[in-house]
Amino acid sequence: MDVSLIYKGLGIDILESDWSDILEITDVNLAFNLFYDKLSTLIDNNKYTNTAEKTNVKFKMLKPWMSVGLSKAFAIRDKLFKSFKKYPCTKNKENFDKFQYKLSTWVRQAKERYYINKFQEYRNNSKQLWHLVNGIIKGNSSSSSKITLQNNNNLMTDSCEIANCFNNYFVNVPNNLVDSFQYITDDIKHLCLTNFKPFINESSLFLFPITLTELKIQIKSLSLSKSTGDEFLSSRLIFKMSEEFSPVLLNLFNKSISSGCFPDVLKIATVIPIFKKGDRLFVENYRPISLLPVLSKLLEKLVKVRLIKFLEINKFFSKVQFGFREGLSTELALQHFLKDIYRVNLFKAIQQPTPQLH
């Protein structure tokens, strides 16, 4: 079924549906639960699935360094391989091996040209440069979706047992961390408390209502490539149907802000264990990644804008805080550090006594 027709049909259903019963509810949790239930029904009626919005798989599998000539060469390689499988003789094997060797050389040269040009293009853009490096590293790393764990010298292969094992370990990490605090001496605690300067401000934080324009801007800024914790409500769906979703979401989000209640349904995350290092059989060598619902990310972004603005107006941030701040980076931190070193060296040079000539 055509994806555009699915979006069109779902959009019409959203616009024609009566949302008044949900919008008039004052209970935030109940309103969001009913919204999810109703939206799920509309999506099911339009036979919308996550696979429907995926683009052509072959197109996604194409590498950035792939050219039309290489695509044709891969097709020739596949034909030679099929010919060798159908008629396994020495001549067919030699033809396949020779062409495979040439193709490997062409691919290596294409990769080299592509990445040399990209590194040259991003030489003044550290963000894009690191993104390129991470893509190379992740592309070369091998990972397996099948996880096997060892518990009490027994191997676990059942998915439910493995999930429970991860859950028990992850939920107890904070408790184990708290227990480790007992080894901290009173002197260290006193030192930490005396060096901590609390933020004292007489102004109060007020979260202004969200506007429709602001909500649409945040929706358009959603990353479509990242996974979410929703089974049926993806970032791509919200992005493509922002006009239809915005009025309903605006009411629900403002209801959450005015009541000071973050919906429980948006707190539910899909936790995925990611291997860190060491032996893959041991649960302590994994770290959890939480995939939050897309509406949770959207509401957090809107609240973050108001919180950051309040903190900046009241001068909460230090002048030398460069991390997690818009417009600041590690490059600026390094420049600031080098300037301090230059000032210190200059001050020392001035303070040194001038040698007298006799």
From TrEMBL:
It comes from the Eukaryota. PANTHER family: ENDO_EXONUCLEASE_PHOSPHATASE DOMAIN-CONTAINING PROTEIN (PTHR47510:SF3), REVERSE TRANSCRIPTASE DOMAIN-CONTAINING PROTEIN (PTHR47510). This is Uncharacterized protein.
